[in-house]
Amino acid sequence: MSVQQTRQQRRAADRSGAGDAGREATVRGVFFVTLLVVIIGGFGWWYWRSATGGGVVRDGAPSWMPDSQRVIFYSEREGKADIALTDLAGRDRQFITTTPGISEGSPAYAPQADLIAFDSDRDGNFEIYTTKPNGDAPQNLTRHPGRDLAPAWSPDGRQIVFMSTRDNPEFDIYRMDRDGSHVERLTNGGSNWFPQFSPDGSQIAFHAMRDVYVLSLKDRSVRRLTHEPLNGMYPTWSGDGSQIAFMTWRNGRTEIFTMKSSGVEQQLLVSMPTGDAVDPRWSPDGNYIAFVHVPGGGVAQRQDAGQQRMIYLVDVKTKRLTRLSR
User: Fold this and answer.
1) CA angle at 51 for the pair 45 and 55, rounded to the nearest 5°
2) 203-208 β-sheet, strand order
3) Which of 170, 207, 163 is nearest to 189 (CA)?
4) Which pLDDT value is given to residue 299?
5) What residues are paired with 223 via a beta bridge?
6) Which residues are paired to 277 by β-bridges?
């Protein structure tokens, strides 16, 4: 065997050995990468389940800080809801209340941002409470055997409207001072839901049965803005008071529409690819509407604990969507 042949064979052997070593290194590398992915993925899955109540996202009732820079909402974990806050990208979630076994919802910031009103069953019956923005010093504003829900602030922060069954088996709209005094009934009979003050404080929008109404606080006259089957519910005012957004199932599933505050020019704003878009809330600066997406639909029926509810933002001008619930 020549020296040249030996060298060629040696090179071939070297290449073969290098290939074997490379394959072994590749196999080891793949193994360790796979193991790392499994570990990281498992931790991420555990963290996500812990943060979202077993992997099911159930957020709802979005509302806004007065500066329109953060969204406040309820978030259910293990079947009960706490009050949470997030930025407009949905990345910085903070819990304001942590009350195991208690459901809290419908949070609303006072215009001065000094208090948050919300409803809670912490005393065994749903009542209206306020708390400081950090969750301290909760105050019980209503104490009645009826159910008191869905507080909303007047523009000057001096009054709160809410819905209650205290005088009627169905809900009526009430108004009270911010300390819970001077409770006044504003509607009488029917089924009246989710009141919202107009930006100038002169009117209250609400829905009765399946239509949007506006109540004048000056003369107590009521205007009907939608007409079943072109129905409307969960009204919310634009920051300048010129428009109202609402949810409707006039097209077969629930979507978000807008209209002039007079009721004209009712137009589609949001229709999700699947499921329902519900519970809109307009930002004070008028740029966004926060709403809840129920991917499985069926919002009009009783929902089980596994049905997801996720908060989105829609840019009113561009209609671009941002998911806040993660």
Assistant:
1) 50
2) 192-197, 203-208, 211-216, 222-224
3) 170
4) 60
5) 214
6) 293
Domain boundaries, the chain: 1-52, 56-323
Residue 225 CA to residue 310 CA, distance in Å, equals: 28
Can you give the pLDDT at residue 298? 67
pLDDT in tens, 152-200: 999 999 999 999 999 999 999 999 999 999 999 999 988 999 999 999 9
Separation between Cα atoms, residue 233 and residue 118, nearest integer Å: 20
Matching residue, tokens 């193991």: 35
Q: Is 325 helix (H, G, I), strand (E, B) or coil?
A: coil
Give the tokens for residue 213.
Answer: 């109404």
pLDDT at position 307 = 79
Other beta carbons less than 10 A from residue 127's beta carbon:
23
| Structure tokens that stand for 76 in this block | 């259910």
Rg (CA), the chain: 27
DSSP per-residue letters across 70-115? EEEEEEEETTEEEEEEEETTS---EES---TT--EEEEEE-TTSS-
Got the DSSP string for 29-76? HHHHHHHHHHHHHHHHHHHHHHHHTTT--BEEEEEE-TTSSEEEEEEE
CATH architecture of 56-323: 6 Propeller (2.120)
In 3D space, the residue among 170, 251, 156, 252 whose CA is nearest the CA of residue 206 turns out to be 170
Q: Average pLDDT for consecutive 10-residue bins of the chain (326 residues)?
A: 34 39 44 39 36 67 97 86 95 92 95 97 95 95 96 98 96 98 95 97 97 97 97 98 98 96 98 96 98 83 72 98 94
pLDDT digit string, tens, across residues 280-291: 999 999 999 999
CB 262 within 8 A of CB 244: no
Percentages of the chain per state (helix, strand, coil), in multiples of 5: 15, 40, 45
Tokens of 128: 């209206």
Give the number of other CB atoms < 10 A from CB of residue 172.
24
- CA-CA distance, 102 to 111, in Å (whole number)? 26
